[in-house]
């Protein structure tokens, strides 16, 4: 028989989005350009040449979108602020119309009884700062703190939950190391340098946010890929340990321990001269919570031909996969949450992103049936509940994402939303998973 597994009272049920992926209005009302506005225009970078110019037009339709969230019974909404919308040049005078937009959005959310979780940075760096080397330039960390002050100056009276960065690992490695994301650079040294400046900017911004609002709850969101060895051999286990250091601990440990993982060998060299005295203490600020983004795991083996970490990635045959070709492995979320709690004793954890893309299509009756997404979410919620039972201080869960949106290099070809978006006319249609999630929220429970 199905059993209802109840979540703690006050558990925060939400969805997450990011500015570039949904807002559109890329050049409206005084917004400056971001590195993504430029990157999407480079030939061959984005599937079908898609851009975020219009995206979900959320900039103009935010009222309708908040009404949708309210109808789903969401308790919280995680969104990001576009830095160049607020500071067109990344620094200097603020754009009042840009700030007004977030002011209206926050009021609309509060009016609907939805708690805003505000992310300051989800990858859309002002282009003007990239022209000064972006995150490879230490100054950017200080400009970020000034930007945090501007946003907090306007919203800290109503926003309690603040997230400094989303997935700085992706920003550093895909943006500066492997060239897959904006700004499209391919230089390991730059990637490591950027990673340090991102972390530094986090520490500086935490101080600013606390200064502006004593009651602020401040955290950072990291993306985790729990790593499993292909075999129990000591070589594979050591490879898994190295992969874990690179993928999971590089950003986590500076923030919650105050130092880079000591076992990262070659990755430390580029930090010479980049890390200045006092930096690690600045980065190691008290955190109120950690945001955990989880989608899949990695399985690895020792492979001396793969440099510099000598880690080979293994494709697990026969496992179910999403449209991103990511293995579906719900137990990874449990393992991760338990491990974060056990090893780092962080006061509170939120799953700030979890979800899946599938090839959804509009059915003849105008509905979207997405049983795979429901199964994915349910399985991950069961693992979240298991983690709670094991004593993990998990306070909330945010589905990625509210609306089908611009999935970076995949353009609009990957649909992650609970709500289907017809990009020809911007019509929003809640999928079956949205109705399912609304029931979970209303019951504060998921059935086994
Ligand atoms: O769409 C992204 C989001 O911007 C960051 N986390 C992963 C999501 C799915 O790829």
Description:
- Helix 7 (139-155) runs parallel beside helix 9.
- The chain is an alpha/beta fold and 448 residues long.
- Strand 9 (298-302) and strand 10 (311-313) form a beta hairpin.
- The protein has a single domain (4-447), classed as Glycosidases (TIM Barrel, Alpha-Beta Barrel).
- The model has no long low-confidence stretch (mean pLDDT 97).
- It has helices at 19-22, 35-39, 58-72, 83-86, 96-111, 127-130, 139-155, 168-177, 188-212, 234-256, 279-283, 331-344, 371-389, 432-443; strands spanning 4-6, 12-16, 76-80, 115-121, 161-166, 217-224, 227-229, 289-294, 298-302, 311-313, 349-354, 394-400, 419-422, 427-430, 445-447.
- The strands form 4 sheets. It has an 8-stranded parallel beta barrel with strand order 2-3-4-5-6-8-11-12, surrounded by 6 helices. Strands 7-9-10 form a 3-stranded mixed sheet, with helices on one face. A two-stranded antiparallel ribbon has the order 1-15.
- The site of 5-hydroxymethyl-3,4-dihydroxypiperidine has 8 residues, from loops.
């Amino acid at each position: 028989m199905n059993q209802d597994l109840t979540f703690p009272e006050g558990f925060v049920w939400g969805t997450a989005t990011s500015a570039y992926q949904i807002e559109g209005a890329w050049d409206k009302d005084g917004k400056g350009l971001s590195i993504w506005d430029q990157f999407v225009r480079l030939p061959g970078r984005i599937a079908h040449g898609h851009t975020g110019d219009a995206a979900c037009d959320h900039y103009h339709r935010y009222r309708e979108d908040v009404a949708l969230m309210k109808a789903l019974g969401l308790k919280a909404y995680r969104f990001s602020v576009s830095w160049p919308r607020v500071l067109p040049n990344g620094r200097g005078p603020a754009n009042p119309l840009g700030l007004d937009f977030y002011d209206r959005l926050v009021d609309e959310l509060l009016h609907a009884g939805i708690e805003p979780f505000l992310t300051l940075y989800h990858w859309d760096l002002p282009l003007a700062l990239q022209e000064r080397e972006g995150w490879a330039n230490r100054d950017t960390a200080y400009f970020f703190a000034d930007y945090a002050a501007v946003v907090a100056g306007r919203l800290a009276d109503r926003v309690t939950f603040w997230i400094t960065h989303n997935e700085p690992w992706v920003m550093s490695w895909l943006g500066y190391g492997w060239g897959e994301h904006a700004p499209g650079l391919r230089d390991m040294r730059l990637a490591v340098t950027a990673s340090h400046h991102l972390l530094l900017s986090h520490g500086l911004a935490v101080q600013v946010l606390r200064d502006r609002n004593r009651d602020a709850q401040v955290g950072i969101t990291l993306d985790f890929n729990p790593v499993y060895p292909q075999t129990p051999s000591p070589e594979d286990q050591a490879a898994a340990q190295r992969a874990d250091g690179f993928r999971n601990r590089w950003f986590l440990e500076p923030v919650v321990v105050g130092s880079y993982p000591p076992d990262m060998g070659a990755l430390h060299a580029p930090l010479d001269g980049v890390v200045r005295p006092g930096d690690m203490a600045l980065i190691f600020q008290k955190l109120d919570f950690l945001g955990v983004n989880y989608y899949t795991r990695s399985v690895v083996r020792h492979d001396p031909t793969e440099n510099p970490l000598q880690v080979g990635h293994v494709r697990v045959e026969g496992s179910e996969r999403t449209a991103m070709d990511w293995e579906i492995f719900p137990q990874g979320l449990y393992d991760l949450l338990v491990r974060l709690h056990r090893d780092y004793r962080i006061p509170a954890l939120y799953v700030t992103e979890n979800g899946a893309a599938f090839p959804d299509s509009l059915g003849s009756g105008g509905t979207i049936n997405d049983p795979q997404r429901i199964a994915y979410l349910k399985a991950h919620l069961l693992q979240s509940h298991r983690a709670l039972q094991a004593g993990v201080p998990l306070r909330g869960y945010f589905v990625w994402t509210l609306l089908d949106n611009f999935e970076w290099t995949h353009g609009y070809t990957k649909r992650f939303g609970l709500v289907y978006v017809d990009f020809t006319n911007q019509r929003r249609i809640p999928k079956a998973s949205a109705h399912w999630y609304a029931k979970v929220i209303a019951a504060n429970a998921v059935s086994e």
